[in-house]
Write a structure and sequence with these properties.
Shape: elongated
Strand order of the largest sheet: 1-2-6-3-7-14
Oligomer: single chain
Distance between the termini: 38 Å
Bound molecules: zinc ion
Number of helices: 11
Length: 407
């Protein structure tokens, strides 16, 4: 099957079957295609991945896929230029956040141009970077690259950077680990070398019902939860006391936060159930397990007192996401290279999490640098300025030229 047949036969294409083998796309045309796939994290991303795989195949590029357990989602990894490891990876997530309940003025899954801006879900976060990289594949292939350029597309970033672990595993197994990774999250094409880590949890408490007039025979799940939340509040204060004002972060310390709570059924019943969600946003370099470990130790004390009254009482905490922070590097290979290409003379820090820390923990040199502004991400009428797409394309062309000599 050729690219056209395989894609249309699987019913994956939006619009007409106009994808001739070896077809070239402008970044704008490629963005139209990518936004057309509704890759909200709860959905499969396989249609988008199949489109990209077919497009790359039509240019003679093989892809390697790694799937989630249900085989409903896939990461894609492909190498342009010389085979093997080293070189540069251009990395992006294929999923987007939901549009539910948001007042969009046009179809979120069709790119609409207004006043020099392209509107659509994922235009800023982060299909434009992927679109530019893909549109320039023929240019990468035509250039006498001295080192490989890898394309690394992940699933499930928006729900806690869950998919990229398998992408990195696949890279390790294939022996094609890049030296440098550029994560193209929207930074308005500025070079970012640090962000906090995000660790989130759901804690569920089970108490024991009784009439509210008889608290001595019941276990109050809401009041036990209040003790745990009080503990987190004290941890928050302790982290504030460890502030590092020179770090450049706002605020310059690890933050601890409880975001939701639900519990109890009626005022005259001692509540059996309470649950709350909480997170900490960790300064790069801080121990990622300290807060969780100390919380668990405190929760074990509270739980022992609950079980002394009723053995069916208990506390359970589940980890939701674990997004490693990105730390400035001692030998910042990625930062030096990308700053030379963008003309930045200082790297910035951002407050949002990305997959960059996971690549860094796997031994790659990483920066975040991509088109668009994070301020427009996740919102109704999300957009990217066309000038940002042009800036990204110009950056990629400089990158191609640079990679004609070894790193
Ligand atoms: Zn993103």
């Amino acid at each position: 099957m050729d690219a056209l047949e395989s894609a249309t036969a699987r019913g994956l294409m939006r619009g007409r079957g106009d994808d001739m083998p070896g077809r070239r796309y402008t970044p704008r045309e490629m963005l139209d295609r990518l936004v057309g796939f509704d890759t909200t994290s709860r959905n499969s991303n396989l249609a988008l991945i199949a489109f990209v795989a077919d497009y790359l195949a039509s240019h003679g590029v093989e892809v390697a896929l790694t799937h989630d357990d249900a085989r409903a989602k896939a990461n894609l990894y492909a190498t342009l230029g010389p085979n093997g490891g080293g070189g540069i990876a251009l990395s992006g997530h294929t999923d987007v956040v939901p549009v539910d309940g948001q007042p969009w003025t046009s179809d979120p899954f069709a790119v609409v141009e207004r006043d020099g801006r392209l509107h659509g879900r994922g235009t800023a976060d982060m299909k434009s970077f992927i679109a530019v990289a893909l549109a320039l594949v023929p240019d990468f292939l035509a250039a006498p690259l001295a080192v490989p350029v890898h394309l690394a597309l992940s699933y499930d970033e928006e729900v806690g950077c869950l998919g990229v672990d398998r992408l990195i595993e696949g890279i390790e197994q294939s022996g094609t680990r890049p030296a440098i990774v550029i994560v193209g999250e929207p930074t308005s094409m500025r070079v970012v070398n640090a962000h906090k880590g995000i660790y989130s949890f759901a804690t569920t408490l089970t108490g024991h019902e009784a009439h509210s007039s008889a608290p001595h025979i019941g276990v109050n799940a809401v009041m036990a939860a209040a003790k745990l939340i009080g503990f987190l509040d004290r941890m928050a204060a302790e982290m504030r006391d460890r502030a590092a004002p020179e770090s450049g972060f706002t605020p310059p310390y690890t933050t601890v936060h409880v975001g939701t709570i639900a519990g109890g059924t009626a005022l005259n019943i001692i509540p059996r159930h309470c649950s709350f969600e909480w997170e900490y946003r960790l300064m790069p370099g801080a121990d990622p397990d300290e807060i969780r470990d100390r919380f668990d130790a405190f929760a074990a004390e509270v739980e022992a007192r609950m079980k002394a009254v009723s053995p069916d009482a208990g506390i359970r905490t589940e980890a939701r996401s674990r997004v490693a922070g990105l730390e400035p590097e001692r030998d910042p290979l990625a930062e030096r290279l990308v700053m030379a290409l963008t003309g930045d003379n200082r790297a910035a820090k951002v407050s949002f999490g990305t997959e960059a820390g996971k690549f860094q923990n796997a031994g790659m040199s990483v920066v975040v640098c991509g088109p668009g502004d994070i301020a427009q991400a996740h919102k109704p009428d999300e957009f990217i300025a066309i000038s940002q797409i042009e800036a990204c394309a110009a950056f990629m062309r400089r990158l191609i030229e640079r990679l004609e000599t070894p790193l």
